[in-house]
Amino acid sequence: MRKAAIVILNFNGEKVLSRFLPSIVSLCNYPLVLIDNHSTDGSLTYLRKNFPEVQLIALAQNWGYSGGYTYGLEKLKGQYEYYILLNSDVSLTPGWDVAFIAQMEKYCATAAQPKVLSLSDKGFFDYAGASGGYLDLLGYPFCRGRILHTVEKDMGQYNDAVEVDWASGACFGVSAQNFHELGGFDPSFFAHMEEIDLCLQLRTKGNKIFVFPDITVYHLGGGTLPKSNPMKTYLNFRNSLMMLRKNLTPFVFFKVIMIRIFLDAAAAMHLLLTENKAHAGAVIKAYWHFLRGKTRIKNIVKTPQNKLTVLDKPLFSIIWSYYLKGKRTFASMR
Hints:
Layout: E1 2-10, H1 14-27, E2 32-36, H2 43-50, E3 55-58, H3 64-73, E4 80-86, E5 90-91, H4 96-106, E6 111-118, E7 133-135, E8 141-143, E9 146-147, E10 150-151, E11 162-163, E12 171-175, H5 176-181, H6 194-204, E13 209-219, H7 230-247, H8 250-274, H9 277-291, H10 318-324
Parallel strand pairs: 1-2, 1-4, 2-3, 6-13
Antiparallel strand pairs: 4-12, 5-13, 6-12, 7-8, 9-10, 11-13
Helix pairs in contact: 1-2, 6-7, 7-8, 7-9, 8-9
């Protein structure tokens, strides 16, 4: 069995591949695999012509991020100890992958991420993951370096390797055995929050999730679903509800959702006033589809789980801290 594979998921990403793949190939020390979600552009022609050494796994339809990785990685089952799932719009640094796997082994991490900085906003953390992800007591995600709409500048303030609640899917290292034992990402998520869901399942079983900030990657972001697309809003809200339903007992979920309904309604109103009615409608649609059971949820937790929090950090709400107390950085909330 080989040590690790670096796996990129692609869907109609010829332009992104032509920009980033040459550098990725030159900076990867482990085998590179591309899973294609049934692209209809020139992605596969570009790959076969320019990088025949990259292993291609072509899927028969577009399964999204979660299904694409889950079904694609089945083809690699039993071949590698670790997977590094890498977005196609990421810029890397020399030796990143060997150092990443070495850190995972040193800290006995089942899943992990490096520090993720923004490629377009130089010096700032990336929205998707920053320097490690957490959840507050209501299941809202936030990061060291990104709280809701505030993204911090990287000043080395979060450079310590620590255990976190979840690791970013932009660059997601995971034990292959554990990934397959849990059935991979839940395909019903399609995209967004599937890595948080998987990390919660891993932690429930006693596994550790880490961030290793001495390894840095740079993420462009928004290549598949830009922030302006209401579908992104829909998936974020719907998948958040699915994630909580899966990983909380019914009683705890009921208590959480009774508060979340009011806060998410306020978010919909904010979107209506600041974005447009399509984004506000996406929030309502997410709740409607979830409550009607439009999406099948697998692996719902049946055993008691006390809380959604990180280690010994006191329970708190980032909504309360951010909007009412004016705390906008991770360090100020500790």
